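Are you able to produce any protein sequence you like plus the matching backbone structure tokens because I've never seen that pairing?
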Amino acid sequence: MRHAKSKSQVPFGFVELPAARSRKKPRRTGLTMVADFGLPYMQVDDLVTMAGRYIDLAKIAVGTSRLYDLAYLRRKLALYRKHKIRPFIGGQFQEYVFATYGEKKLRPFLLEAKRVGFDVVEVSDNCVELTPRQRRAQIRLAVECGLAVFGEVGLTGEIRPVTFGEERIREAAKQGFTTAIVPRDNLPRVALPGIAVIGVSRIDEALRAALNQPDLKA
């Protein structure tokens, strides 16, 4: 049985880590993501050996997934998973496919993501603006292809405003949702029928709001 390290075995062990950050994986709070812009395998090995216990997610950024040999990419994804780090494709790759080839290529893209070893994709609109209908369709398509879907927040934890904010809230209400947690800058000017709207500025605020809403708990 492996025992937890005593404070004398940890450098500066008297300095406490934030109480809100869980020390065990899988974590529900205090998650940390790294952005991998094409790190070689051995650099990833060094990174996860040194700091893997603090890392939860690895974004394989932009279109770098296209540049690997298949065996090399799968080996790298397996290394992340060995250290309980969940790798996923950054949303800008899907944005590029959508903008360059159109909606017809999204299913082949998502099925290929599944084939090469991903189980999560990110749906974003950093460079290519999506309407609520397009975003909803892309999320549903990813789920149909056997993938989980991540959204995007700022790297420092801020919740950024999104386009078509009120339209998205109205669409959520039509789908039967009774509570929406949204960027503070997207709060509607007047109350919308059938749905309570909570504005937040940071991811920790969003988590607290979600955990205080019985209908939003996992």
Observations:
- Helices lie at 41-51, 70-82, 91-101, 106-116, 132-144, 165-174, 203-211.
- The mean pLDDT is 88.
- The chain has seven helices and seven strands.
- The domain at 20-152 is CATH 3.20.20.70 (TIM Barrel).
